[in-house]
Amino acid sequence: MPVSTTRTNSALSTQRLLQQLNADQLALQRQYDQLSTGRRVLRLSDDPAAANRAVALNRGIDRGEQLVRNANSVTGSYDSADSALGKISTALIQARGAAVEGAQTVLSDDERVAISTTISETIQNLFAAGNSMFRDQQLLGGILDSGNALVYDGNEVVYTGRNAIGRTEIGAGTPAAINVTASESLGAFSMILEGDPLNAALDRETRLGDMKEGRGVSAGIIRISGGGEYTTVDLRTAGTIGDVADVLSSLEIDGRKLNVRIGDDTFEVAYADGLAGTLAIEDASGGSMAKDLSIENKGGAEAPPIIGDKLMPRVTTNTKIASLNFGADEDISDGLIIRQGNQSFNVDLSEAETMGDVLIAINRSGADVHASLNETEGRIELHSLRSGVDYSIGENGGNAATVLGIRSATGQTLIEELGHDRGVILNNDTPDLSITRPDGRVLELDLESAKTVDDVIELIQNHPQNQDSARVLVGLNEFGNGIELNAPPGTEPMVIRQLGTSNAGNRLGLIPEGQNEASGESVGSVNQIAGTDYMPLEAGGAIDTLLRLEKAVLDGDVGEIDRLQQRIDDDLDRATYARAKVGIWSRNMLDMKETTETQIVQMKEQLSNEVDADLATVISEMQQRQVAMEASMQLIAKTSQMTILNYL
Fold first, then answer.
1. C-alpha distances out from residue 569 to 158, 581, 591, Å
2. What's the rounded Cα separation, in Å, for the pair 483 and 450?
3. For residues 114 and 107, what is the distance between their CA atoms, to the nearest angstrom?
4. For position 7, what pLDDT does the model report?
5. CB 269 within 8 A of CB 222
6. Which H or E run contains 10?
7. For 232, left (φ over 0), alpha (ψ -120 to 50), or beta?
8. N or C: the chain end with fewer CB closer than 10 Å?
9. Backbone angles phi, psi at 337, to 5 degrees
């Protein structure tokens, strides 16, 4: 502020000089602040443009530093997971060696006990690795679990984890997983049964979004004409196929009402009077609803009724039982039976109305299984929770398991899948089984042509010597699983034998293991042989494999040991793959961490350029401000001593 050279009163001059002195002091203070902090921009008003850029850079730096902290934290988790997976691989390699040793045919009882002890130790190592912790979280049992994921229940192991995967952000892109699950590493929580497709039928409550196997039908605007002007129908608020049917049924096209019928997999539009005529249906511009429903009929090229098919609704937890199997409305009130080892659990489905009710009933039955619904494929999936036992899902007097597609042993079961995929040993050109009826007649059966259990049943039913009133009736057990033989009583009980070197009777569950024949018992008015489950399901996973191997070694079951060797190889491949995945995650994490640290350095450099002060410039300007302030003070001193005599 320059010194005024005009004539002014003393008060105004003093005010101007004080303002100048105050401005000099503030400017000098800013220089001191810049010198002490090293910053040029201390507040937004100092340089709004630079301050705005600095805010964005600080935000980026804070985010980058958080990503680096995330990466440092994940490093420990990856290292611990790698250690646990390494222990699993080592234990499985040791078990593989023990299996090879145990497969020898000439071993003493003491040697078998010693080998089984080695296997028991490897099971303990797997058990400990499966319960490994990092801080307060499970490494393999699920990130949400703080307790042991695996627990002993007698000689069996139960998985109690939840398979939850934690994720964190350590760089740009998809958040990275920070743990592998017990399924990926140990094979725990294995899927023991993938049910058959349930094939839901349409009903009024079917949601448009669930149609077309889940691809959905896009609600929109369609145009309908009876040969004259088009009527525009707004269906954008429709939520279910029933909503669409209600709107269309309320219309009159050229004075004629429409009739809409929802079939099992069809949607039919016609005139209510049932007469012919023109019925054009098309989508409004940009829409696809008529096309999605397969009722598009441009220009009325086809005569009514217009039938849309292949609408294929997805099976969801809300799907009604009555809609399954294309609306067969079958009864599942008898429920089903789940057997695990020596335990049996009845699943009560008498109150079940939807698929969600079925899943809840199975999961609350007390059996160590977890049922879920694969909505993409429309089937039930069952996962095992207990290792060391066989599972079986059968009927409880009705056909609920069959309707739900989860009966584990059916007539379509392949002969080659029996005996845990070891198949059946058959005789060459001679009968494999014989059934002696209570009246003494013998039925000899050659199973060479049989591919499925149904084929075996048909061979018995159609046997030339089994076509009279005393014939043997055969079918699947009404309760549980297995094949059931019934015949009128006679002087002797019915007997089934496996002949020669064949083990068909054992594999079909009609003859106990270790025996070559079985006799019938009187049940009511018939003589009956009730077979056991011929298709038991293994729990799966490394621990289940080793529990079975331990028993097979003690029993000297060389065939079972040979079979389990392949399973150990599969378990080892699984653990190795999981470990390799953790290694890849760790490498990617280090790369992203390095990239983020480089970006932080670059952003800090940019921030410094925006807000940091040049000390040489600050010192120079500070000296200039000091000189200016001294000049202002000298001027104030001189002007304050002026009197009227200075103007004479």
1. 22, 18, 33
2. 15
3. 11
4. 58
5. no
6. helix 10-37
7. beta
8. C
9. -120, 130
Q: Please state, in angstroms and as integers, the Cα–Cα distance from residue 382 to each residue in 141, 314, 392, 461, following that order.
A: 19, 19, 11, 33
Pair of tokens at residue 435: 């059934």
pLDDT tens for residues 474-512? 999 999 999 999 999 988 999 999 999 999 999 999 999
Q: Retrieve residue 108's tokens.
A: 């003493």
Work out the pLDDT band at 642, boundaries 50, 70, 90.
low
pLDDT tens, position by position, 307-336:
999 999 999 999 999 999 888 889 999 999
pLDDT, residue 6, reads 54
CA distance 125 to 543: 10
pLDDT at residue 425 above 60?
yes
The crossing angle, in degrees rounded to 10, of helices 48-102 and 542-555 is 10
Q: Residue length, the chain? A: 648
**Residue 612 predicted with pLDDT over 80:** no
Among the listed residues 587, 582, 538, 588, the one whose alpha carbon sits nearest the alpha carbon of residue 564: 538
C-alpha 289/C-alpha 282 separation (Å) is 9
Amino acid symbol at 610? E
Does residue 540 contact residue 384 with C-beta atoms inside 8 Å? yes
DSSP labels, 185-250: HT--S-EEEEPPP--PPP-TT-BGGGTTTTT-----EEEEESSSSPEEEE-TT--BHHHHHHHHHT
The larger pLDDT score, comparing residue 75 to residue 432, is at 432
How high is the pLDDT of residue 169? 80
Q: Which residue has the higher pLDDT, 506 or 182?
A: 506
Q: Which residues pair with 162 in a beta bridge?
A: none
> Are 332 and 321 spatial neighbours (Cβ–Cβ below 8 Å)?
yes
DSSP 260: E
Contacts of 122 (CB under 8 A, 6+ apart): 91, 92, 94, 95, 98, 546
| Per-residue confidence (pLDDT) for residue 570, from 0 to 100 | 95
Provide the pLDDT for residue 373. 95
